[in-house]
Write a structure and sequence with these properties.
By secondary structure, this protein is mainly alpha-helical. It has 2 domains: 34-160, no CATH class; 167-314, no CATH class. It has helices at 2-12, 25-53, 55-67, 76-87, 101-120, 123-156, 165-189, 217-233, 238-246, 248-269, 280-314, 327-333, 339-342, and strands at residues 194-197, 200-203, 206-209, 274-275, 278-279. A 3-stranded antiparallel beta sheet has the order 1-2-3, covered by helices on one side. The protein has a two-stranded antiparallel sheet with strand order 4-5. A hairpin with a 2-residue loop joins β1 (194-197) and β2 (200-203). The longest helix is centred in the last third of the chain and has 35 residues, at 280-314. The N and C termini lie far apart (103 Å). The relative contact order is 0.07.
Length: 348
C-alpha cells in the first residue's frame, strides 16, 4: 500500500532535470521582476523621500496652480512625466545601472540651493532646486545611465514650476502689446471698425481691454507644455522636435488673437441677442474671461496637428546610406585596360 502511494507521488511530481543552458521559470520570473518592478519601486521611494523634504515647496506650487489660472495645468505635469517614464520602460537596462558618488554631489547642490532659497526667501530658486535634487538622487542610485533613462520625465517637470515674478512681469507687457495689435489687425481684416489705444481695442461703440490676465501668458505656458509633450512622444529627429517646441509661441499668439477677435465680433453682431439666457455683451464677457482659456486648447491642438501634418508631408525622407554606397560596385565592374590595348594594338 505504501509503495503504491510512493509510486503515485513519483508519477504526480516527476523529477524534471534542466538541460544545460536552460533557465528555470522561477529564475526568469525573478529576472523580469528585477528588471522592471525593482527600478520602479526605487523610483517611487525616491519620489516619496523628496516629496517629504520639499513638502512646503509643493504646497506653495499647489497654491499657485489653484489660485492662478496661468498655472492650472500644473496638476497634469507630474502625471504626464510618470506616463513618459512608463512609455520608456522598454529602454530599462538595470544591469548597467551603478550607484555613483557624483550623484551625491549633485544632490548636495540641490539641497544647498534649497537652504539658500529658504534663508533669502527666493521661492523660485527653491522650486528649481527640487529638479536638481531629483536628478542628483537618480544619479546617486542608478548612475548616469539611470539619469539618461529618467531625464525626459525629470526635465518635463519644469512646466509645473511657476515663473519668477520678474520674468512673469517682463513677459506680460510684450504679450499684451502683441495680442492687442494682432487682434486689431485681424478685426480690421474681417471688416470691423476697430482700432487700438494702448491695450484697449475699440470696436464701434464697444471697448475691449486686454488686461494682464488676458495677455496670453497662460496660453503660452500651456502650449509650451503641450508642444514639448508631443515632441517627446514623437520618434523624429531632434531638429523636427525643436521646431514643434518653438511653434508654441506663434500658436499661443494665434489662439489669443482668435479669443480677442471672437469677443469683438460678438460685441458688434450679437450685442442685442440673447445667447443661452445671457445678453450678447454678457456672453462675450463670459467667453473672453472664463471660457476662452479652455476653448483655445482644442484650437491649439488642431494647429499643432496641422503643423505636424505639413512638416511630415513637406520633408522628403531619404534612407540612411553610406556616402560611398554603390561606388565600390561601379569600380568593381570596370576593368583596367592597358594603354596599348586602348589604341587597338595587341599585346606582344
Amino acid at each position: 500500500m505504501f509503495s503504491g502511494l510512493g509510486n503515485l507521488k513519483t508519477n504526480a511530481a516527476p523529477n524534471h532535470r534542466l538541460t544545460q543552458g536552460e533557465t528555470h521559470p522561477l529564475q526568469m520570473l525573478e529576472s523580469s521582476a528585477s528588471r522592471h518592478i525593482i527600478p520602479c519601486g526605487k523610483l517611487l521611494l525616491l519620489i516619496s523621500g523628496l516629496a517629504w523634504m520639499y513638502w512646503t515647496d509643493l504646497v506653495s506650487m499647489q497654491t499657485q496652480w489653484e489660485a492662478n489660472p496661468q498655472y492650472s495645468h500644473g496638476y497634469l505635469v507630474p502625471v504626464f512625466a510618470l506616463a513618459l517614464l512608463f512609455m520608456r520602460h522598454d529602454r530599462l537596462e538595470p544591469t548597467k545601472w551603478r550607484a555613483s558618488w557624483s550623484g551625491v554631489l549633485l544632490l548636495s547642490l540641490g539641497l544647498g540651493l534649497k537652504l539658500f532659497s529658504t534663508y533669502f526667501y527666493i521661492e523660485s530658486l527653491g522650486h528649481l532646486s527640487l529638479l536638481i535634487s531629483i536628478a542628483g538622487a537618480t544619479v546617486a542610485l542608478w548612475g548616469l545611465d539611470g539619469l539618461k533613462w529618467a531625464f525626459p520625465g525629470i526635465a518635463f517637470l519644469v512646466f509645473m514650476l511657476p515663473l519668477p515674478h520678474s520674468m512673469e512681469g517682463a513677459l506680460q507687457g510684450p504679450l499684451r502689446s502683441v495680442g492687442t495689435n494682432v487682434s486689431t489687425f485681424f478685426l480690421q481684416t474681417i471688416g470691423l471698425p476697430a482700432y487700438s489705444e494702448g491695450h484697449v481695442i475699440i470696436v464701434g461703440e464697444h471697448f475691449i481691454g486686454v488686461a494682464e490676465a488676458c495677455s496670453g501668458l497662460r496660453m503660452l505656458m500651456v502650449f509650451f507644455a503641450l508642444s514639448t509633450a508631443v515632441a517627446m512622444v514623437l520618434s523624429e529627429s531632434w531638429l523636427f522636435r525643436l521646431g514643434i517646441i518653438a511653434s508654441a509661441v506663434p500658436i499661443a499668439i494665434i489662439a489669443n488673437m482668435f479669443r480677442i477677435a471672437s469677443t469683438g465680433a460678438i460685441y458688434v453682431y450679437m450685442s442685442d441677442t440673447t445667447i443661452w439666457g445671457m445678453k450678447g455683451t454678457e456672453f462675450a464677457h463670459t467667453l473672453f474671461h472664463d471660457w476662452a482659456g479652455w476653448l483655445m486648447i482644442p484650437v491649439a491642438l488642431m494647429l499643432l496637428w496641422l503643423e505636424i501634418w505639413i512638416l511630415e508631408h513637406s520633408v522628403i525622407r531619404v534612407p540612411d546610406r553610406p556616402v560611398s554606397a554603390g561606388i565600390g560596385t561601379h569600380f568593381a565592374e570596370e576593368q583596367v585596360i592597358p594603354a596599348n590595348q586602348k589604341q587597338g594594338s595587341t599585346p606582344s
